[in-house]
UniProtKB/TrEMBL annotation:
One of its GO terms (molecular function) is 4 iron, 4 sulfur cluster binding. Signal peptide: none annotated. The keyword 4Fe-4S applies. Belongs to the class-I fumarase family. This is L(+)-tartrate dehydratase alpha subunit. It comes from the Bacteria. Pfam families: Fumerase. Keywords: 4Fe-4S, Iron, Iron-sulfur, Lyase, Metal-binding. It comes from Magnetospirillum fulvum. Residues 12-283 form the Fe-S hydro-lyase tartrate dehydratase alpha-type catalytic domain.
Length: 310
């Protein structure tokens, strides 16, 4: 049996709607905790207003933020799953669902031609929306993950060197956050994703995935990486920059790090802010027609993080 292609598009359209409107429970709980501990009155007011705004968006079924970012897709393919029409049919369905959601939710049509600036008013174009893939062994399902990620600021990258060490990573991380906060380049509090290692493009990719595809409170299985996640989170919230750039102690909801083995002579690092409208939604499709919705992407499985020969 195969997953019917006519099931893909309506599920994808629903994911776009949920991502735009419904804040995941882990993010909401993280903001609620920060509101209880934030000592600065203005910053606490911002956090409380944010929670009220999310509630109003859910009640009215409207996008939680006027800037709905750049919609993109992450697809986890079960190795034993079959899709009617294959991946070409899948991608066509995801593009149609993105265009439909842009009109009906509505999403802001942020995608334009980079030179002519022509807007298709659909968030669909050349390499848009992005569709990233991962594979899971022995699985007979397909996970569709919709993410609405800001596409302008709140991201930086630097090539460090082995001699820079952990202190170099911390210094670059703090440099990024101070620039984000002072210049209004990210809407905090944010989930901060950090990519360490890999090639230049891999470093950027895993940093963005760390920000968008892990739940608040999760920790990397490598104890050294998990310890650095805690250190960077504490550093961010001790920076003196709070919600939306006001003075406070609530800059980061959480900090997630993903790593990749890298060149012996370098240590690329990227930092990404998944803004306070942390928009993601997930559905698992089976070949018997079942669909299971959730908010935990479960992207970083043991197989995804595998190392060594198999």
């Amino acid at each position: 049996m195969s997953i019917a292609i006519d099931r893909i598009e309506p599920v994808a359209a629903e994911l776009m709607r949920r991502a735009a409107i419904d804040i995941p429970d882990d993010v909401r709980a993280g903001i609620a905790r920060m509101a209880q501990t934030e000592a600065e009155p203005l910053s606490r007011f911002v956090l409380e207003a944010l929670l009220e705004n999310w509630q109003a968006a859910e009640q009215d079924r409207r996008a939680m933020c006027a800037d709905t970012g750049l919609p993109r897709w992450y697809v986890k393919l079960g190795n034993e799953a079959r899709i009617e029409g294959g991946c070409v049919a899948l991608e066509r369905a995801l593009r149609r669902a993105t265009a439909s959601a842009t009109e009906t939710i509505p999403l802001r049509p942020n995608r334009v031609h980079p030179l002519t600036r022509q807007d298709s008013n659909s968030n669909v174009g050349i390499l848009a929306p992005e569709i990233d893939y991962s594979v899971e062994p022995a699985a007979d399902w397909v996970d569709l993950i919709a993410v609405h990620k800001g596409g302008l600021f709140g991201t930086d990258w630097r090539m460090l060197f082995p001699g820079d060490g952990i202190d170099g990573i911390k210094r670059f991380f703090l440099d990024c956050l101070l620039q984000f906060g002072r210049r209004g380049l990210a809407c905090q509090p944010a989930i901060l994703g950090v990519g360490i290692g890999g090639s230049k493009d891999t470093c950027m990719t895993i940093g963005k995935q760390a920000a968008c595809l892990r739940v608040v409170g999760s920790r990397h299985p490598d104890p050294a990486v998990a310890g650095l996640e805690d250190e960077l989170l504490a550093l961010a919230n001790a920076s003196g920059i709070g919600p939306m750039g006001f003075v406070g102690s609530s800059m980061a909801i959480d900090c997630h790090i993903e790593i990749a083995h890298t060149h012996t002579g370098g240590m690329p690092v990227s930092v990404h802010a998944f803004c306070l409208s942390s928009r993601r939604a997930v559905a698992r499709l089976y070949d018997d027609g079942r669909v299971e919705y959730r908010t935990d992407p479960d992207w970083f499985t043991p197989y995804h993080r595998r190392e060594g020969e198999e």
